[in-house]
Amino acid sequence: MIPLVVRPAAQAAELVQLLRQHGHAPLCCPLLETVAGSELSRLPDLLHSADMVIAVSIHAIHFAHDFLLQTGQTWPHIEYFAVGQASADGFAAIGIAAICPDDPRSEGLLALPALQQLVGKRVLILRGNGGRELIADTLASRGALVHYCAAYERHYPEFDGEQLTHHWQAAGLDSLLITSGELLQRLLALVPDHQQPWLFDRQLVVPSPRVAEMASAAGFIHITIAQGASNQALMAALELRKME
After folding, report:
1. Overall pTM surpassing 0.70 (yes/no)
2. Fewer CB atoms inside 10 Å of the end CB: C or N, the chain?
């Protein structure tokens, strides 16, 4: 198959390599760039006072971990949670066992038994510049003292959507690997309206029911929900579609 990979460059390169190893011919076009967040300098103090840490994306873990390494510091021995399997894998890669829900959404995380009784607990949420307000609001309503750390910031490269769409069509693009609602929205904004019927007819692989609902509402027809946003989960879902 000829899938489109749009996740940030570092993760995109790993996914492209994996797809090629399994006989696919991916096209790579990162629609999102990530850079170190403006609040990383606060991370050591926030970690020192936290009872538990929640990571809402693997990017937050990568940038936080790099900052700690550069400043000669380590992760404290407290409870760690990940919204999805990709983030849990990110924690595992640095030696941290994080609790992860089967349902890779904010709602799935909030349903975990360990996050029900939180009176007086200090919770640190690692995220980008904005997002996941539902988690903070709900945990605060359960008595938690919630702090954010913007471990990374998002930037969108400028593209000529018409030209890019023609390139994808000429290359025979037949599938899309979209790892977040944010990237789905960016793709929809990039592809011109008159080209969207073509886009909606591509095979779409998404990481969660939430993103699948967004895609269906936008007009996508062929949607597969992977078992999370990890490269392995995306590739496995695409392999299933290839065999059908």
Report:
1. yes
2. C
